[in-house]
Amino acid sequence: MTALPGSQSGIRLDRKAVSRLLLVAAVLLLIGRNHLPAGLLRLPEAAVIPFADWINIGFAFLRDDLGLMTLTRAFADVVEFLLDITANLLYGKSRWPNLGPIPWVAIAGTAAVLGHALGGWRLAALAGGTFVWIAVMGQWKWAMETLSVIIVASPLSILLGLLLGSLAWRSKLAEQILNPLLNIAQSLPHFAYMIPVVVFIGVGPKAGAIVTIIFSVPPMIRMTLLGLRAVSPEIIESGKMSGATRWQLMTRVRLPAARTELLIGVNQVIMQSLAMVVLASFIGMPGLGQKLLQLLQALKIGLSVEIGITVVMLAIVLDRLSKAWAHQQPEHHDVGASWLARHRMLALWLVVLLAAFALSFVDPYFVEVERKQALSLAVPVDAAVNGFITLVNPVTDWLRWFLITWVLIPLRDSFLALPVASVLIGLAAVGWRIGGRRSALICLAFVLPIAMSGWWDRAMITVYMVFVSVALALMLGLPLGVLGSSRPERAGRLLLICDTLQTFPSFIYLIPVIMLFGVNDVAVVAAVVVFATVPIVRYTIEGLRNVPAETIEAAAMSGANQRQILWQVRLPLAVPTMLVGANQSVMFALFMVIIAAFIGTQDLGQEMQRALSSTDVGKGLTLGLAVAFMGLTVDHLLLTWSRNRNRELRGLNG
Amino acid sequence: MHRRSGLLISAAVCAVSVGSAFAEDSSDPIIIPIHNWSSQIVMSNAVGQIFESMGNSVEFVSTDSQAVYESVRLGDATLEMEVWEGAFGASFRAAVEKGGIHEVATHDAITREDWWYPTWTKEACPGLPDWKALNECAALFATPETGDKGRFLGGPVDWLKHDQEKVDALGINFTVVNAGSAAALWAEIAAAEKDKTPIVLFNWTPNFAEAVWPGEFVEFPAWEEGCDKDPAVGPLPDKIYDCGNPAKGYMKIAAWDGMKDKWPKAYATLQKVNFTNAQIAEMAKLVDIDGMEPEDAASAWLEANEAVWKTWTE
Hints:
The complex is a heterodimer of chains A (654) and B (314).
Chain A: H1 5-31, H2 38-41, H3 51-65, H4 68-91, H5 104-136, H6 140-170, H7 172-187, H8 190-201, H9 205-230, H10 233-241, H11 246-257, H12 259-275, H13 288-297, H14 301-327, H15 339-342, H16 344-362, H17 378-417, H18 420-452, H19 456-485, H20 488-503, H21 507-517, H22 521-545, H23 549-557, H24 562-595, H25 604-613, H26 617-653
Chain B: H1 2-16, E1 30-34, H2 38-53, E2 58-62, H3 68-73, E3 79-84, H4 85-98, E4 101-106, E5 112-118, H5 120-124, H6 131-136, E6 150-154, H7 163-170, E7 174-178, H8 182-194, E8 200-205, H9 209-212, E9 215-217, E10 251-256, H10 259-262, H11 264-272, H12 277-288, H13 294-304, H14 306-310
Parallel strand pairs in B: 1-2, 6-7, 6-8
Antiparallel strand pairs in B: 3-10, 4-10, 5-8, 5-9
């Protein structure tokens, strides 16, 4: 590290100088904006490229001339056949094999046995209890409608992920093609790819399943690639020596060896599928999400919160089950053990099933709890929400007035007043400072197309809302994270809240937020802040807790007090992790700002909502890519910064 | 033996209905689309249960309320119970032009969509419902983001309601702020109700909101055909949109062209189906106020109103 100190600081100085020069240029352009030619304030009409029309022409060609539609519809028919089977078994839709519906006691019992087999009594209670909750709250049919789609979508997604992941692992070219596609797919707002799905697949449960697959497949691909790469050559060698064929080597050696990574991928697929439950109902996915939107439409917050709790519980159960499965070690029985000893869980399951079916013959209550018999939390929840709103009303009125007049409107106006040229050069300056010429060019490559798409003003409004929200989220999340990291049990509790907020369907808090602040930017920012704070708290806790104990001890021994340790040792060492958190926070904020179009915004999200209702593929994708590119710019900058910082820190320690 | 008696019975049934000489209905399910507002869901369930009582099988599918006309046209869905003139007239007409869908009947119910206020607003601005009075009270409706102008809360932009054009044409002192969803509109009324803040917003009838929050429409200059295209029509000679929305919009039933041949009996019933504003409000109330499930609300309504619908099935 210390071999060439001179040349290294020379490069750094150079970087700083270039960056400063660019920054000065940007500021000068901003100061002189009134004297600039119009072309530097906003790109001239001639430079605006009709991306939307091009995409539409491309899609029309794919659909009509290449007949891709027949192919996609054929695939959709296969998916629909599978969906009909699960729909019949889980909630008795009149389709082949006409066996269902399976009584809820049987499913709850199965979940409990599965939980017991994978993780002991506590997991059994959690898994069984969740399904009992769903049943007694009268949500059985809706939850089964949702699960009937997820049960089909998740395995297909896992399979597709395995296939594409191993393809990327085998061929460099495939990886090079897939990597940018995955980056974009993971930062594209959901609405953007829902539009092509409506065109190529139609609406209904099958469209819901396919959108869920598209949304959940990227992490599986990445984890497959990562897992296969990490398999040690010795294992492969021993596989080859035992004479395995290529196929055997893959299925019997490589994939089992990559088990841990693959199962993390599986876990991610399940989580992403549940995150899609509400959004996919916009294109016809039945079940909890659709019911939730109906209830919100009639302003029934209490009942929608019940559904929200169910979604969170399902997510937690599936998360814990799949993680327990990932950590499970193969069991070895003594030679000559009896069938019962070897298959204890299977036997237990059969007993539970028998009991369940017997119960369901005794009383139809154990087949499906009707809505009339259901319990409900709605009344106390509604009362609590109302009480809270009345309580804070005097404060929110003032806060709303203050934020709108003194913060939001001035900020919004100044973001809109920025000349395009000034933004581009300023970004290049930041890029250059962080990652040199390469980063500067990457930033420009992402942001220039947004300017050329003709949606600049809308994009700037999106940027302004994300900026305000993330700034507020930092102000809230950093102290919370610091506070939470001081004691392990407190950290555990905060992280549980983070998990809950992240899986709780975000549509539910759009309504109380409007009741508090009205239809305006304050409501939007408030809704986004809730979501954007989560990763900041999470990563701050992670970062602070992972500071090596020896380092802290060393600081304490040299006489630093608690405060100094926090500010001069722990926080600086946690910065790389916290930057990753900030990056996540920006991503979450971008997604949520788009969804906040349902409150009422004037940004890219509002236009995207319009594109969805008129199924305009080209416009939807152009807007979606604009959002994705903003996300990727921030992603590139923050992650590069975090990586450099990490390297510096390791340099210091080494 | 059983089989023969079954045949005899169906022969007898045929003989009874021989006057209409219909073929039997297909055993395939009739697909009824449902959307995200309760009156439509209850009405669809009620009609579905009527079909089931006639021996048909029925399935419900949830769809977008604009995209549904494309589905009906292609036969993916069989019928649509609520075609609103203002909200869906354009999508419906476009689908009719492409072919495959047609109008079956028109409900007695009339629809209206326009600027609306809950009753407590009138206490603050007694001149209402006249639009000129509303304009004089504009300051009452001011919010931080609209400055000293009044705020009119419009529906989502993709509903294309021309509120801004109306403000410009009539020169009223309001700024249009668009909410992003119907739920956002209700949340605003619910919040305004707590301290009786005056509010004027986009609303429509029949709708569950009128049962929860009584209110009135603002009376603009009456709608005349061509007011939206011809500047000469309407009170101001040089302006378009110098008028309110049509106060008596239609609500129709639409069906897939193939329904007539595939389920002739169900189709004949559908032609007689007809709901009034009061009945629709009642259905919405069962769900939105009484908290019933749409299916149960439909059964309850059918049970209580047998006299109304029995004649449709004959």
